[in-house]
Amino acid sequence: MCSSILSLAESFPHSLDQSIISFGSLLYKYAFKFFDTYCQQEVVGALVTHICSGNKAEVDTALDVLLELVVLNPSAMMMNAVFVKGILDYLDNISPQQIQKLFNALSTLAFGKQNEASSHIQDDMHLVIRKQLSSTVFKYKLFGIFGAVIIDGIMAADRSASSSLTQERANLSDEQCTHVTSLLQLVHSCSEQSLQASALYCDEFANLIQQEKLDPKALERVGHTICSDFQDAFVVDSCVVPEGDFPFPVKALYGLEEHNTQDGIAINLLPLLFSQDFAKDGGPVTPQESGQKLSAPLEVATIKPLGLDKQQCSQ
Questions:
Q1: C-alpha dihedral over 289, 290, 291, 297, to 10 degrees?
Q2: How far apart are CA 182 and CA 202, in angstroms?
């Protein structure tokens, strides 16, 4: 009955009726759950076909089913991971929201605690992410940022909440922490010359931190890097007045520190804001020094999601 049920299920995602689409999704899920490995492979193949079709509703439905199968049946899906991985060759018609679902499914297969031996998928995922991050096409760089942050979220997930893991496995090893931090540093270095890419990275990573699912060791390591980058980009000594032709006087305001001292600090907002707006208006832009990071005032908003207070910024 497998082929007949799959033929029926394949027609349902094309429907305009949401209840019929949902019924088709259930057919796929139950066929994967109750039939043998051959039929499971056919189910995954049908879902991959839907995802590569380019039809938004069809792609969304198939990705939802795929992600649910990965979560509910990780060991069975691991046997079909090569088919899922093939979707990475057909990303032209996939939206940013859809690529997040796809990377969630692939990253769970490759880096989830149930599949820690899947090194070949891990290597392929790292290769794809590095290629996308280095792309000059913003869409693919965006995909790379999504993928890298999702991978780190799964790699660095706080495993202490899982009672089925021993204490040794519950905590991330130093090697795993190194992988997490090195991937984030790669994203940072590949996005620092693009304000849009840098803002997206800050936003995605801030959302990851707000979920409070990161292992404390990994969060501490990454936090040091982010705090250092923030201070380098935005924090200046309040006694040093930036040079430049600004529309009004530059001075420290609003009391960032509780005790105003001569050697206090300030957030370098006006010079950054003026240089950004001046460039938009067609004014001359000073060439960036080699390796210098582009900075935008809106990135300062990352302080709040990262949980940094005034004392930590001052330190």
A1: 20
A2: 16
